[in-house]
Specification:
single chain; 391 residues; alpha/beta; Rossmann fold; 36% helix; 22% strand; globular; Leu-bd
């Protein structure tokens, strides 16, 4: 795939060539900061995906895979500078990351400037493969519309009134915009929207506004929460007894640590990206067993996403027969590959990975530390009409 020196070249040049022949991947992600737990899962998953897809060799056609980690600390300016460093100084073949949608949006123009592929995982905002997209961007992670459409299918219905609470940045605003659009297509609507700072810990004022907007409505009433990180809005608002107004809390899936709080919501429905017991396929079987053996825990939400990205990297380079950017883009557009969630496919129009989502109902088992999202229905690629937003 890369330049090979002729026989007789002096040893020091041969060593340099061998180093240059490595397949270099930058993982640019928020290794430290508020989403540290997400970041660790994403990196563990990426490495497991590379391992799985190469049969444990960590090589593609005899060339060693080298992963260079770069910590954005969840700051957009760091993400931009570190990706410039990775493409420019480190001369990586492609990059993966980041965790935060805000950081991702700062990184997208860098991929276009350097004409190098960036695989976005797990940042969610629709604008990443929508208004701010460019042809060097591919995303293995789900987008806000996939979250929104799947949750709308799970929650909407005749005479169902829904209010929303989300963080006031790209992830929250894009998520609610997509959810609102999906609800309209499902015959429901949003009666009230609340946006609060990402570090909010006191939800009293926002909750009171929601209660006032919904208390006199007839029919089913649900408060749908989109949240990442700490703060525990679900638990704190539940402590304010929304049931006195007939309001039920609803949300999508989350990491296992966060789903400990879901034990207070038996029977709650929503849609999730991944839960390790749901997908039934050989890739997920390998991930669950390997993760349990290696780390002593089941794989989590973002572990599966990281693994999907790692497998995509290997499959793309194999299909392209090269790490040349144009060859990779040609190979990846429309590419299908197997992941812990089953089949994914990069949609040619916006390079968004189309994938299944899972409608769940919460089951509480006293012997399990977290609430169990029991499968109601797998929502396949064909079940999810995900809009194309980059035109």
């Amino acid at each position: 795939m890369k330049r090979i020196l002729c026989a007789g070249t002096v040893s020091i040049l041969a060593l340099a060539s061998a180093a240059a022949a490595d397949i270099k991947i930058a993982h640019v992600y928020g290794k430290t900061g508020p989403f540290e737990a997400y970041a660790k899962q994403s990196h563990d998953g990426l490495m497991l995906g590379l391992e799985y897809a190469t049969g444990g060799t960590m090589e593609i056609d005899g060339e060693k895979i080298v992963v260079i980690e770069k910590d954005t600390q969840l700051k957009p300016e760091n993400g931009k500078a570190l990706l410039e460093e990775a493409y420019g100084d480190d001369e990586v073949d492609l990059a993966v990351g980041p965790v935060s949608s805000g950081v991702a949006l700062a990184m997208l123009p860098v991929a276009e400037e350097y004409e190098k592929v960036l695989i976005v995982e797990p940042a969610v905002a629709d604008s990443i493969t929508g208004a701010n997209w460019n042809r060097y961007i591919f995303r293995t992670g789900r987008n806000s519309s996939q979250d929104a459409v799947s949750n709308a299918i799970a929650l909407a219905g005749e005479n169902v009134h829904i209010a929303t609470l989300a963080q006031d940045y790209a992830f929250g605003r894009d998520g609610i915009a997509a959810f609102k659009e999906a609800l309209e297509g499902a015959g429901s609507g949003i009666v009230h929207e609340e946006y609060v700072p990402t570090d909010t810990t006191d939800f009293t004022a926002a909750a009171e506004r929601i209660f006032n907007a919904m208390k006199d409505l007839d029919g089913e009433k649900r408060l749908f929460i989109i949240w990442a990180g700490g703060g525990n809005p679900m638990g704190k608002i539940q402590a304010m007894d929304p049931s006195r107004f007939g309001i039920e809390i609803a949300t999508g899936g989350n990491i296992l640590a966060a789903m400990a709080a879901y034990k207070d919501f038996p029977g709650m429905q929503g849609a999730t990206y991944y839960y390790y017991e749901i997908p039934q396929n050989p890739v997920n079987d390998w991930l669950v067993k390997t993760h349990q053996d290696r780390f002593g825990t089941p794989p989590d939400f973002f572990t599966a996403g990281g693994m999907a990205a790692g497998i995509a990297v290997v499959e793309a380079i194999k299909k392209a027969g090269s790490t040349d950017t144009e060859a990779l883009i040609s190979a990846m557009e429309g590419m299908e590959w197997e992941t812990p969630k089953g089949k994914m496919m990069f949609r040619p129009e916006d390079h968004q990975a189309m994938q299944s989502m899972y409608h769940f109902k919460i089951k509480v088992d006293p012997n399990v530390d977290w609430a169990i999202p029991e499968l109601v229905r797998e929502l396949t690629i064909d079940d999810l009409p995900i809009p194309i937003r980059n035109n």
